[in-house]
Amino acid sequence: MSGQSLTDRIAAAQHSMTGSAISKAVCKATTHEVSGPKKKHLDYLIHCTNELNVSIPHLADTLLERTASNSWIVVFKALITTHHLMMYGNERLMQYLASRNTLFNLNNFLDKAALQGYNMSTFIRRYSRYLNEKAMSYRLAAVDFTKMKRGAEGVMRTMNTEKLIKTLPTIQNQLDALLDFQPNSNELTNGVINTAFMLLFKDSIRLFAAYNEGVINMLEKYFDMKKNQCKEALEIYKTFLNRMTKLSEFLKVAERVGIDQGDSPDLTQAPSSLLEALEQHLASLEGRKLKDLSTSWNAPLNTLYNAVTCL
Length: 311
Hints:
mainly alpha
């Protein structure tokens, strides 16, 4: 299907008759055309999120209703539209989505109408799980990790130890859900999935930036932490190293399909001796002994800090 279907036109006409401009815009953003939602419809919906007289629950519910379609195209575009509004719309939409007990329930979605439907249904299930996790992260942390202030005075760099150890696993869970999208370049075959992948790429860069800054802050505090905090922090850091590898694979796919890598993070890992130093410190707190570290890592904390700032 290359253009709007008869169903799309009838639905839009019905919304015009009932005077529901939001429903009409959502309908037009989620047509059966195999292309991403049109900018003019997305821009209008973003504008709606900023209007105080617009019902955010109505807007959200209208998008959720579109995911009840049997068409992979309509459902995928409803998810894309929701993601776009999460990123660029007023925060009150994210607040409402995060407040819901359930968001997208598409774990069993399958469009059997054509081979492409089978293939795209897999990505719809993965994408919906990511958006659910994105909303859950906001619910738990009361902040969108992709939008928070960054840098030396940013949220993650100035967070205290207790909150940091609680927050970093939430970021990890969101990044895990994003990386589970797992396309290869041969599967990015149409304008719908390509649009979703572009939004995920943008989120991945911003999400990792917050994650990285939080880990730097955690490592700077590590030698002043209590034993149980050190234990949790060490596991967080080990998980972080694994996520760097997965993110690198994700970014390689983006590079192969021609996405500009200018804003991609430097994923060069700190030397393995950093991990050894962290393990040695925890062992000393627990009264255990590990193999002796090289003399370079028996140096003062500022030596360790130099490795941390390479992250």
